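Troubleshooting log. The previous structure file for this entry was overwritten by mistake, so regenerating from the original sequence record. Sequence copied from the archived sheet and checked twice against the printout by T.R.
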Amino acid sequence: MNPLRDVTAVAHRGDPYRYRENTIGSLRSALARGADAVETDVRLTRDGVPVLLHDATLKRLWRHDRPLRSLSADEVRALTAGGVPTLAEALAATGGSRLMLDLPGGPDERAVRRVVDVVRECGAEDRVYYTAGASAMLAVRAADPAAEIALTWTTAAPPRPALLAAVRPRWLNYRFGLVDRALAERVHGDGCLLSVWTPDTRRSMRRLIALGADSVTTNRVDVLCALRELGGPPSAGAVPRDSRRR
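Regenerated output below.
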């Protein structure tokens, strides 16, 4: 296989250069531009409704310096003119497309269980996967033994075998600057797929794919999809895809 054509293109918070991040318009734009999946952030309102928002407050995106956890879903809707979608609305708006749910609120088991419950209620288990650090992903695994998980790892040191056995991730998710050939080979040797975030230049994308990245999360999914369409021979040193354990 050609690594460029084979890589999974994941849109970071939708299409944030064209639409406000984590909004329905941003998600739909990313999918229209060829994304295989959209990464989006999920937090809970005061009354336990999962909504799409990266930050703990509405200040940066919506100019209201109000913590999300202090607001009900109805109050969020009023303050943002409906701009912050609920997770259920996002799942409905993206049809059968894949969503990668990032859980930035920390290891809150109640919040994790509520997110997993909404995914289940919407019948979206087969097209949703989860990403965050170890504590949150252990909570996801407890809430849904069959969940697909991309364990976010922020150091070059490998996760402990006991943690991998407990979380059972399909993917290991790394900041792109940490990735080299040795790391990619180790991830694949552990039986995982390699996910990286968030390179936004063609040069970085090509380098990571040549090293063996199976999935690239980027703010410029149109650039990644254009590279994928162009294809071309693999760069020197690429890890052969058919040699990887799944």
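The two ends are 15 Å apart (CA to CA). Archived copy saved in two places this time.
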